[in-house]
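Re: the request from the purification team.
They wanted to know what the chain is likely to look like in 3D before they choose a buffer screen. I agreed to run a prediction and write the result into the notebook, where they can find it.
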Amino acid sequence: MTYLDWLSKQDGHNALVDLKNDITLDGGFPQDNKLADMRRYLVSKKAPIRVFKVFYWSYGLYLKEMRTEVKQLEAEFLREIEEAGEEYL
């Protein structure tokens, strides 16, 4: 899941909804998941400081959620290996 996919699913926090709407309306926002590209784009648009703060805060939330998802997938994978035993190898 990319940052933009994650952001499009955020409905609970007004700042995230506002950021999502601003980014959605601006078709030039980078569609890849590269933080540096997104940052460069915001700099080139001379985005207000509050936009940078919300962006970095939300990107941190996104990374935290992705880390949690990776840990869950890793645990599931290890459980499958243990259950399969030597058959897995």
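For the purification team: The chain has a mean pLDDT of 90.
Please add any questions underneath this entry.
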